[in-house]
Amino acid sequence: MNEYREHDPVGSHPGPAGHEPDDWDTNYDSEFDDTSRAEPAWVGAGEGGTPLHVRRQREAARKRRRRRSIAVFLLIAVLVLGGAVYLVQSFLDGRRPAPIPDYTGTGESDIVVRVQQGDAGSDIAATLLENDVIQSTTAFMTAAHGRDDLGTIQPGYYKVRTQIPAAMAVDMLTSPETRVGSFIIPEGRKLHTSVSVGGDHTTDGIYALVARASCVELNGDETCLTEEALRAAAATADLAQLGVPEWAREEVSQAEDPERRIEGLIRAGQWDVDPDATPVEILSELISRSAQAYERTGIIEASGAVGVTPYEMLTIASLLEHEALPGDFSKVARVILNRLDAGMQLEFDSTVNYALDSIEIATTDDARAARTPWNTYAMTGLPQTPISSPSIEALQAVENPEDGDWRFFVTIDFEGTTVFTETFDEHLENVQVAIRNGVLASGR
């Protein structure tokens, strides 16, 4: 290449195909500007060995390169400056985030909201937002972050206020004073209130417990359901409306006392009722959820193996709550089944007391002789309905009764010692022990 150019007159050699002369001049100059190679000697060159017009071409190329370098530098500087401005602005925005929407003040009005079973914090926030308690879920989650008392928020109903700061909403949900509609049905509790002999002790029935739990004060006005309204709903509403399961409807429909026909269909345990609900709605939730709990124990499948209907299993479980301690449930269940199989009367004082206004452990001869749908001294078989709300533990004992030939049992002391026998003579001996210990003494 160099040898060819030494013998070719300057400017007479055409540039590469497709290139303009200026472009080619630049390439040419660039090629010979390589300091790692010797500068060629030009034929006819003047002083210095390089023709004048070649030196001018080189100088022009250098100026073009300088202009391009300056332009590139300025472009890079603009980009760097713009990026720096962006980063600074982002940093400043990070220090000053947009405010989170949140109410101020003490709220507008009282309202009852429900926390469902399994609700996470985001679910609770969504419920509060839907009811206009808070202005944004972000505000609630921010206020709740790091609170050690959030574990006290349990499924149920809470009285709060609309349009309150998120922090206040968290405070209200974690305060026991705002929980409403919560109550407990103890094992063996009846629908109706009962009074002990002598009137010194009153036991609230389920109707009374529900009525009291329904009370709530909103904006200064307190509202409560009445026992009368609950009893009327139990007696007159359609069984499907009341949530009575299909496996119990036929037997429930035959109950002689309409107010007692749902006895035993509401399980013992912790409950929450909506203070805004109607009597039918409340009873329906209690009964339908109880039926689900009973069914989870296997009551339908077990009834075939035990030889009684699911409803009769509930009735037997309700008897266990009054006739035995939990440790003896499965044995007493076997006694009941054995006596039913033999066509014997059960003769339980608890079934006599069920229809009485005043109750005690020992019953009178007159009370035992009175014919009622429940008195097992005056009839064979089971009571027409359960006599109380059974626990799941009692129901499971009926589903899995202990093996044995016992037909009699009696509790002989106040520590709850219960003895089981096969013969009536043995039983009578144990009854005398119970009488001497004061267990069967009458207070009448």
TrEMBL record:
Keywords: Cell membrane, Cell wall biogenesis/degradation, Lyase, Membrane, Transmembrane, Transmembrane helix. Residues 1-10 have a biased composition (Basic and acidic residues). GO terms for cellular component: plasma membrane. Its main location: membrane. The keyword Cell membrane applies. One of its GO terms (molecular function) is lytic endotransglycosylase activity. Residues 22-33 have a biased composition (Acidic residues). GO terms for biological process: cell wall organization; peptidoglycan biosynthetic process. It is found in: Cell membrane. The record marks E323 as: Important for catalytic activity. It catalyses: a peptidoglycan chain = a peptidoglycan chain with N-acetyl-1,6-anhydromuramyl-[peptide] at the reducing end + a peptidoglycan chain with N-acetylglucosamine at the non-reducing end. Residues 1-61 are annotated as: Disordered. Belongs to the transglycosylase MltG family. This is Endolytic murein transglycosylase.
